[in-house]
Every structure is written in structure tokens, then in C-alpha cells.
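#dry-run=false #mode=assembly
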Amino acid sequence: DTEVTQTPKHLVMGMTNKKSLKCEQHMGHRAMYWYKQKAKKPPELMFVYSYEKLSINESVPSRFSPECPNSSLLNLHLHALQPEDSALYLCASSQEGGQGNFYGYTFGSGTRLTVV
Amino acid sequence: AQSVTQPDIHITVSEGASLELRCNYSYGATPYLFWYVQSPGQGLQLLLKYFSGDTLVQGIKGFEAEFKRSQSSFNLRKPSVHWSDAAEYFCAVGVRGGGGNKLTFGTGTQLKVEL
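#status=ok
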């Protein structure tokens, strides 16, 4: 299995809702990532998990809460989002967990989030 | 801090023509360099990567890239473009760190292929 699977593919939520995005990989990768991508823009790093521990938080607002229950799963919990948070949310994983060579990321196909 | 510049926002080529997408990076040490492609509404697919060694790297879908340290460049090339190559292309530089490895992307180049 060489894929990163993200669910749901599309999500519409109100500003008072609580929802979660899910990401799963079975490649044995020990680093997982959340990126946010606005239309016509490059992806921007939000969070990095290395060996199931949060290692990088790029000053993301607290209405985004990541969770890594095990080495294969990564969640992004959403609460009280704003319309400007509407974007494509991409999950990625990589072979290493902080040290060693950098082989690049494997990306999922993303969750298209719309906040109304 | 590392950064990546893709000077061309849009490029249009005819099917069958050759292609070169430009990428310049800024990083103090030897960089890890990548090219990704993204079709509309999709995730990013890795085309190729450079770590060290041979400066001409081969990737998937007939793409290649050449690392030129003196020019801080990592340009992507394809000898004959197919209509299915129309997509957004991102160059990225990777940085290893104790807290995790980070990819920083350029602003992307939108490729349009004319039939």
C-alpha cells in the first residue's frame, strides 16, 4: 500500500460546527503532516508529527487541533472555523521521523473544506 | 531560511513541444529538492527528487531535472509534452530538522498544453 487516504473528500460545515478530518497511511512512515492550500496558492505547512508526537506547529490558530492516535492515523479536529478557513487540506507522510535522509512526502488527495 | 522561486506563473506550450519549468532556491547547505505535480482538486504527486550525486535526475512521466549549484537552480524538463501534462507544478526544498522534515514550496507554475 503506497497511498495516503483522506476522508472525507468534501466537507461543508457551519461556523459553530465541530468536525474532523482523517488521514491514514500504511507505508510504515513515522512522520505525518497537515498542509493547508488555498486556491491558486502553494501548500502551507500547519503541523508535523514525528513518531506520533507533535513536533512542529506553524502558529496555527487553536480552532485547528491535530491528533495522532497511532503511527498510521492522523486527525485534524475543527471547531468554530471561519469562512477564510475554507481550503484544501492535505495530509502527507514521509519515511523518516526527523533524522536521516529526506525522501520527500507522499500526499493524500485532500479534503475540500467549505465553511459557511 | 530556505525559499523557492518559480519565476513563471503560467506557461503555455503546444503538444509535442519541449518544456522547461524554472526553479531557483535559496538555502545555506546542500538542499533536498523536489518537483511535484498537482491536477485540479487533487493532491500532489512526486515527479522527482535530488539529494546528491548525479546532477541530472530522472523522474516519472518522462520528466527530468538538472541541479546546478552555481545557479541555485533545479529546472524541470520534458522533451515532448502530452496534453495530459497540463497541471500545476511545484518546486520544493526540503530541510531536515530535529523536530521533523519540512517542505517549502514555490508559488507554482500553471502549465497549459495547446492541442
